[in-house]
Amino acid sequence: MNITQAEFVISAVRPNQYPEDALPEFALAGRSNVGKSSLINRMINRKNLARTSSQPGKTQQLNYYRVNQMLYLVDFPGYGYARVSKTQREQFGQMIETFLGDREPLKMVLLIIDIRHPPSQDDCLMYNWLKHYGIPVTIVTTKADKISKNQWQKHIKIIKEKLEADPRDKVVLFSSETGLGRDELWQVLLNRIEETKESE
């Protein structure tokens, strides 16, 4: 996809701060330091519109990025980071639950998992939560450049088994370093927008 415009719009913590222009939204969920910000930057071909940090737990709001005036990428706070206080974790949980439970423009959640590691308990909880509420999900395995190609399918199999993934849910191999999976992931997003238009 050709990116003509990409901008950071708002860091939201409450529903009254969410954008009201009803553009389709695609949320990125994953544990701290899994590479969500790097994925956003690669998707929009910008070096650091989404601020990356070596310090896990940096994102503490829902960060909205508008792309080509046609959709939002919404970066969730990373979960599973021990040094975030219990109160903050509970606040994050409530914020995410509020968003996922009642957000009309939300078209899909991208569950971001580091291909090198089996899904965490938090990853499994998030996946089960999305399935329970009937929210479409695509599993995106980041950092594919960090392991050899002949290991990819083995690691994807482990991820699917641990999540007990629905075979209909797509898995996209991704590398923010090389751009692997960028075009495929854009196609997933655009297809989803088309599907929702047809069903309206």
Automatic annotation (TrEMBL):
<feature type="domain" description="EngB-type G">
    <location>
        <begin position="22"/>
        <end position="195"/>
    </location>
</feature>
<keyword id="KW-0342">GTP-binding</keyword>
<protein>
    <recommendedName>
        <fullName>Probable GTP-binding protein EngB</fullName>
    </recommendedName>
</protein>
<dbReference type="InterPro" id="IPR030393">
    <property type="entry name" value="G_ENGB_dom"/>
</dbReference>
<dbReference type="GO" id="GO:0046872">
    <property type="term" value="F:metal ion binding"/>
</dbReference>
<dbReference type="GO" id="GO:0000917">
    <property type="term" value="P:division septum assembly"/>
</dbReference>
<dbReference type="InterPro" id="IPR027417">
    <property type="entry name" value="P-loop_NTPase"/>
</dbReference>
<comment type="function">
    <text>Necessary for normal cell division and for the maintenance of normal septation.</text>
</comment>
<comment type="similarity">
    <text>Belongs to the TRAFAC class TrmE-Era-EngA-EngB-Septin-like GTPase superfamily. EngB GTPase family.</text>
</comment>
<dbReference type="GO" id="GO:0005829">
    <property type="term" value="C:cytosol"/>
</dbReference>
<keyword id="KW-0132">Cell division</keyword>
<dbReference type="Pfam" id="PF01926">
    <property type="entry name" value="MMR_HSR1"/>
</dbReference>
<dbReference type="InterPro" id="IPR019987">
    <property type="entry name" value="GTP-bd_ribosome_bio_YsxC"/>
</dbReference>
<keyword id="KW-0717">Septation</keyword>
<keyword id="KW-0131">Cell cycle</keyword>
<keyword id="KW-0460">Magnesium</keyword>
<keyword id="KW-0479">Metal-binding</keyword>
<keyword id="KW-0547">Nucleotide-binding</keyword>
<dbReference type="GO" id="GO:0005525">
    <property type="term" value="F:GTP binding"/>
</dbReference>
<dbReference type="InterPro" id="IPR006073">
    <property type="entry name" value="GTP-bd"/>
</dbReference>
